[in-house]
Task: inverse folding
């Protein structure tokens, strides 16, 4: 697992490209969105489809932040078990979020189909892997909670888990057939292209400096120009870059890095995740692995790329996949935060 690495695989393998020139003049809109990731582009698409005039301002390029750096797992839940979500958010809000997340993969697959997004969509499920005996007990409890809520999840033993993953390192797994994998940057770019087709305006290389509320309009200053809009959506997640605004998002930055191998030979592809599932484990310092359409093994873990994260991973299928040729990292989050600006 050593050798020279070349950066973010998703940028190299993405088949989707976006044309979005910087903001070059003042503009007016019904809705201005700051951030060109999953949230910003999906919101722009839906608002434009409903007839609103929409402007998206992205400081770098579409999918520059977490949307273009993540593992690409399309999950029907969070890192937290359902009961923990309710404990943190309260009964009503927690159950509402759990219900929305349960339907989220179906929404993603339908958006991909409707907008014809070329993003390696693989709706073949995910495997949550028990890295230890306590990890298996955790999955057994998650399975119990999921079944109570009507989720079609299945608990696999170590033998079935080994058959699916190609590794005997795990004590069992929780399979969710609703879930799957995508090429995340292609998905983010595909949403942006769909929003443009629907009539939204999108500007890359347009870093917002200041946001003010004047009368019944938001005034957003970027590139020396002003965008005025009735409504504002701040969709920067952890890549908020010091915008001068009355309310700032609060988060704790935690790095997550990934490594990708060269395409595996066919015999290995037949042994390792031949069903196309995406995987992550129950360790506190979480690890993940999946494959892409070219048969690369993509391994990830909590930490930065220089922190020896690969040495902390279980002896999973990555041990036999050859040297890593790429690595990249980004900032994840656990429970999504939303709120109204004053």
Result:
């Amino acid at each position: 697992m050593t050798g020279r690495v070349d950066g973010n695989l998703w940028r190299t393998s993405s088949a989707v490209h976006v044309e979005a020139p910087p903001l070059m003049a003042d503009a007016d809109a019904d809705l201005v969105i700051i951030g060109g990731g999953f949230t910003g582009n999906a919101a722009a698409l839906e608002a434009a489809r409903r007839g609103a005039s929409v402007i998206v301002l992205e400081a770098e390029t579409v999918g520059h932040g977490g949307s273009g750096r993540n593992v690409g797992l399309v999950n029907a839940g969070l890192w937290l078990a359902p009961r923990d979500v309710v404990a943190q958010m309260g009964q009503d809000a927690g159950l509402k979020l759990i219900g929305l997340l349960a339907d989220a993969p179906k929404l993603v697959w339908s958006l991909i189909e409707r907008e014809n997004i070329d993003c390696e969509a693989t709706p073949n499920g995910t495997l949550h892997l028990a890295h230890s005996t306590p990890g298996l007990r955790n999955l057994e409890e998650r399975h119990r909670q999921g079944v109570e809520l009507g989720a079609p999840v299945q608990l696999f033993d170590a033998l079935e888990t080994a058959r699916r993953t190609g590794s005997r390192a795990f004590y069992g797994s929780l399979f969710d057939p609703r879930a799957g994998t995508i090429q995340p940057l292609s998905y983010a770019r595909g949403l942006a292209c769909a929003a443009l087709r629907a009539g939204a305006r999108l500007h890359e290389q347009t870093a917002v400096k200041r946001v003010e509320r004047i009368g019944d309009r938001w005034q957003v200053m970027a590139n020396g120009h002003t965008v005025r809009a009735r409504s504002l959506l701040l969709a920067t997640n952890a890549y908020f870059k010091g915008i001068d605004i009355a309310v700032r998002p609060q988060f704790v930055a935690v790095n997550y890095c990934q490594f990708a191998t060269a395409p595996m030979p066919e015999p290995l592809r037949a042994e390792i995740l031949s069903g196309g599932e995406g995987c992550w484990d129950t360790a506190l310092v979480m690890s993940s692995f999946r494959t892409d359409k070219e048969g690369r093994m993509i391994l990830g873990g909590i930490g930065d790329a220089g922190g020896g994260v690969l040495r902390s991973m279980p002896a999973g299928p990555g041990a036999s996949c050859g040297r890593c040729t790429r690595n990249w990292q980004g900032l994840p989050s656990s429970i999504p935060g939303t709120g109204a600006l004053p």
